[in-house]
Amino acid sequence: MKAAIFYGPNQQLKIEEWQTPSIKANEVLVKVSACGVCHTDLHYIDHGTPTFKKPPLILGHEPSGIIAQVGSEVKNFNEGDRVLLPAVLTCGSCEFCRTGRENICATMTMFGNNIDGAYAEFVAAPAKDIFHLPKEIPFEEGAIIADAISTPYHAVKNRAEVRAGDSVVVFGCGGVGINVVQLASAFGGIVIAVDVSEKKIEWAKKFGATYTINPTKVDNVGKEIKKLTSGGADIAIEAIGKPQTIESAFGTLRKGGRLVIVGYSADDIKLSAAKIMYFEMEIRGSLGCRPVDYPKLIELCRIGKVKVAELVTQKFPLDKINDAFDLLRSHDENALRSIVVM
Hints:
The protein has ten helices and 18 strands. The protein is an alpha/beta fold.
């Protein structure tokens, strides 16, 4: 099969012929139709973030496709089925999986990190971890549900616990943040979107933000938000991954407010311990999405309650995958989400 091979940081991916995966009795072989282009992959390529499996490795963790082969023990899928693969596979038996927190499975396995991913013509996956993709959802759109939408869904529903009428500040309206905006709005939140890009602010309005703020055009973001919310937001969600924006997000909250950190940063942050204690503030992390949440999310996408088609702004063939990452590096304001199509 043809695949884009990652040989190490600061190198372009190389398009090569690679061994087609063989499957076990409980697995399926999926002919990849589309795979999202994610900043996580860019961290491996540009920033030296280590992968668990040492290169050479196939990256890509947002795939959709058609089942080409099923293992002998697989009962609920057939050849030709349209499927969506989650970014992370779970063991199902550790303490976290057994208590409904599979997204932080003790032995989680990630495509394009622990095992070969989906920037390839085929990918193998355990049948227990995949989901049927309705015919109403094109493969290119289904691919980004796997992570770019499921991660915000978990953050909004399970970690932020957004309820109707909650004031929700979202810092960052990029590929993940824009879906935090639309999902928080879908759950009934009054969303205040914060971004330095006027184009992203425009998108935030289209995806459900009630208010928008460009930090470069106000003296103090926290004060502006406290004016809009009569003293502070109920919930702040940071979807960038910078210490300064995490700290700024915390500063927008009212007493008893909840900060949810979705953006990744390897750096430490400084928050007031006294404020956390005295005002009973909550700080929560959010990682990925639980498998149990995918069916409802897929249905929301199928019926159009969650917008998906509007998110796909660029498509690249596998041979041009390095161009897709160049676009990601460019921070082009017209690029929201890119897809590699097979």
